[in-house]
Amino acid sequence: MEGLRTHAMDEYPYECCGYITGTDDPETWIVRRCRNMQNELHARDPEQYPRDARTAYIFNEEDMKQLFYTDFEDPDKRVVGFYHSHPDHPAYFSEKDRMEALTDWFVPEPFYLVLSVGENSVSDMKAFVWNERKETFDE
């Protein structure tokens, strides 16, 4: 998980984003850093993208291609989790995070990790998983 902390610190004061591939065994997990293109979109069209990368993220197109095409070539590996940071805010799963996580793209459903990052450190990290019985995400 040190790679996640480093990524969050490297991108501060902006949100970092990425995903984790592997199997159910955490020893196989590989952190895939993605480029947050929120600032570019905000600069291009602030009306459609009112938030900048300090409070939002969007994976860039190349990272999405990697995610959906290259990383699925090994049938034994899958996306086990997604992550992003909240600069200068707590590690919580926002309503926007919940809405974006509700897809049928991945089976089994990956976890969603949120890191709280400040200027000097990552102070908290929380994982959220889909609870089908309750139809919500649990910490």
Automatic annotation (TrEMBL):
A Pfam family hit: Prok-JAB
UniProtKB keywords: Hydrolase, Metal-binding, Metalloprotease, Protease, Zinc
Gene Ontology biological-process annotations: proteolysis
InterPro entries associated with the record: JAB_dom_prok, JAMM/MPN+_dom, VirAsm_ModProt
GO molecular function, one term: zinc ion binding
Residues in JAB1/MPN/MOV34 metalloenzyme domain copies: 1-135
UniProt-listed Gene3D superfamilies: Cytidine Deaminase, domain 2 (3.40.140.10)
Identification of the protein by name: JAB1/MPN/MOV34 metalloenzyme domain-containing protein
Source organism (scientific name): marine metagenome
